[in-house]
Amino acid sequence: MGTVFVAAALIFVVGLAVRSMVKDKKNGKSLQCGGDCKQCGGHCH
After folding, report:
1. Which long-range contacts (CB under 8 A, 24 or more apart) does 32-36 make?
2. Cα dist from 39 to 16, 21, 43, whole Å
3. How many beta carbons lie within 10 A of that of residue 37, not counting itself?
4. At a CB cut-off of 8 Å and minimum separation 6, what does 31 contact?
5. CB under 8 Å to 30, separation ≥6 — which residues?
6. CA distance 13 to 36
7. pLDDT at residue 24, rounded to an integer
8. How far is CA 29 from CA 6, 7, 23, 33, 34, in A?
9. How far, in Å, CA of 29 to CA of 7, rounded?
10. pLDDT tens digits, one per residue of 1-43
């Protein structure tokens, strides 16, 4: 029974991480430089 709860919690956390990445991607942020083009030399866009 404990394994089910741990698996559910893990799936929930992974889902939140994926949701955050999708939201950032829709807002134009890059996973490589975080959307701050001053830091990566303006190669984001």
Report:
1. none
2. 27, 20, 9
3. 13
4. 21, 24, 25
5. 44
6. 26
7. 80
8. 31, 30, 9, 8, 5
9. 30
10. 999 999 999 999 999 999 998 888 777 766 665 555 666 655 5
- State residue 28 phi and psi, 5-degree precision: 90, 10
Token digits of residue 13 = 């956390």
DSSP H/E element including 9? helix 2-26
With 0-12 / 13-18 / 19 or more C-beta atoms within 10 angstroms meaning exposed / middle / buried, residue 30 is: middle
Q: Which residue has the tokens 């984001």?
A: 44
